[in-house]
Write a structure and sequence with these properties.
Blueprint: H1 2-26, H2 46-65, H3 68-92, H4 97-107, H5 113-116, H6 118-124, H7 130-151, H8 154-159, H9 161-190, H10 197-209, H11 213-222, H12 229-257, H13 261-290, H14 292-296, H15 302-322, H16 326-335, H17 343-370, H18 379-406, H19 411-421, H20 425-437, H21 443-482
Length: 483
């Protein structure tokens, strides 16, 4: 022990003295050619030296905090903490955690944070940092859509194909029609300047028609309804709804981005060709690329994950280049993933945990930064917002309930199914951001539709309880009459 300590001390002393000697000798070397030697003023007093040292440290800290990477870390901390706290609070209030995270994103924007503490808001979210935030949030959305694609159970859809197609398509057609009619009255005042009526009307129809399949599935899990007849029917209908609505949205985006009728037709052909390649080609080759061992193992290897990520990124890149949006490619990549050996579940657990904790809150915050509730600064604005919520609810809930009743479900179950299909959640926010990026939605209508998405999602739980209690009352009354 003593020999080791002696060796340690001698080594440090000798090498430390050597370093100091070299530094001393090096100070006398001539400066490199072309270099400007820094002139350091000699301090006149110890007090001045201490003051300048403190000032230098403070200046360095300030510069480090304003570094783009430091700013990103500050934003991550603020967003993640706010999202987790809001999620926990909403869970205690009987709402899904994702609703709280959506609300946290809006509250971190100019609607609350920017209004209450404008200086702190400008420090945390300066305009120069939003580009990085947007890119990270888009990556999070693509990973989320990849997971959504893997959660679509086509086998379950085929088992309940008749009821699922009738209910889901009715829950799209009726609200879509109402959205287009609503666009007729809102176009002049609320569309983004330069937007054609067709693009605005088609997009308003989409915004009324979307169902949040992942949020719906989590509501059913939390209420223990996943394995009930109503729960399995709702999940199947939402899956069909998602595939149909996002396919329609892809075509709407292709039309909106095209500069002419010919370009629009070519874009649609490219989309159809890409879908055919993914379904008829990549889907069949994936099991061979991954291998049976890779699909059966408990945890996917790095090689398997690299293959999957390449498929997701390549698919997202293809749809972005075609002109519809990267998230459509990510969704399709998830839908074609092999199911053998529970491979989809193993992937989704790993991807979803990362994206939902870190990246999706960034998307909520970025959406919140775009949402200016202060634009609804008059009675007419709030009346329009309430009207949009009413039209969206009547169209989605009403269309689903009537179609479900037609397929043989009783009114209570039909209304509960309608309430579940009226859940919009994150899927609606994704669609709205696409419309905003395309220059179709003005900031004012964007704020109204974001509020609509949040309100209809929050209504799901209370409406389920209300319509479920009606079923209980009806069952009790039948039991009493039978007795």
């Amino acid at each position: 022990m003593k020999r080791s300590a002696l060796f340690y001390l001698v080594t440090l002393s000798v090498l430390g003295a050597g370093i100091l000697l070299v530094l001393h000798l090096g100070a006398a070397l001539p400066a490199p050619q072309g270099a400007v030697a820094a002139k350091v003023a000699a301090p006149h007093a110890s007090g001045a030296a201490a003051g300048s040292a403190v000032a230098a440290v403070l200046s360095g800290l300030s510069a480090n905090v304003n570094d783009p990477l430091s700013h990103l870390f500050v934003q991550l901390l603020v967003i993640i903490v706010a999202s987790r706290l809001a999620g926990m609070l909403f869970v205690r209030c009987g709402q899904p955690a994702v609703v709280g995270e959506m609300a946290a994103g809006i509250l971190l924007g100019p609607s609350l944070f920017g209004w209450v503490a404008p200086d702190a808001f400008q420090f945390v979210f300066p305009a120069t940092s939003l580009g990085v935030l947007k890119l990270l949030s888009q990556i999070g959305v693509c990973l989320f859509m990849f997971v959504v694609g893997m959660e679509v159970d086509m086998g379950q859809v085929r088992k309940k194909a008749e009821a699922a197609v009738i209910v889901s398509h009715a829950s799209i057609v009726l609200p879509y029609f109402l959205g287009v009619v609503l666009a007729y009255f809102l176009y002049t005042d609320l569309a983004q300047p330069g937007t054609g009526f067709m693009a605005f009307a088609l997009f308003m129809g989409i915004s009324m028609s979307i169902t949040a399949f992942p949020v719906l599935a989590r509501i059913l899990q939390e209420r223990g309804m996943s394995r009930t007849f109503l729960g399995s029917t709702a999940i199947t209908c939402a899956a069909v709804d998602d595939v149909t609505a996002w396919s329609i949205l892809a075509f709407v985006v292709a039309i909106a981005r095209a500069t002419s009728v010919g370009a629009s037709a070519l874009n649609l052909l490219l989309v159809l060709a890409f879908i055919a390649i993914m379904i008829k080609g990549v889907r069949l080759l994936l099991p061979r690329w991954i291998g049976n061992e890779g699909m059966e193992s408990e945890a996917p290897s790095r090689g398997v994950l690299a293959t999957v990520i390449c498929v997701v990124v390549g698919s997202a890149l293809a749809t972005e280049v075609i002109g519809i949006h990267a998230l459509f490619g990510a969704f399709l990549a998830g839908a074609i993933m092999p199911e053998a050996g529970g491979f989809r579940h193993k992937l989704s657990v790993r991807v979803e945990n990362f994206s939902s904790v870190l990246l999706l809150p960034l998307f909520f915050a970025f959406t919140g930064l775009r949402t200016q509730i202060g634009l609804l600064n008059d009675v007419q604005g709030w009346a329009l917002c309430l009207g949009i919520i009413a039209v969206a609810t009547v169209g989605k809930l009403g269309g689903s309930a009537i179609a479900a009743r037609w397929t043989g479900m009783n009114w209570s179950e039909s209304l509960q199914l309608g309430a579940l299909m009226n859940t919009r959640g994150l899927m609606e926010l994704i669609a709205l951001n696409i419309g905003y990026d395309l220059g179709i939605l003005s900031p004012r209508i964007f704020a109204m539709l974001v509020i609509m998405a949040l309100a209809t999602t929050m209504l799901t739980g209370p409406l389920l309880t209300l319509f479920g209690s009606r079923q209980t009352v009806m069952d009790d009354s039948r039991t009493t009459l039978a007795a």
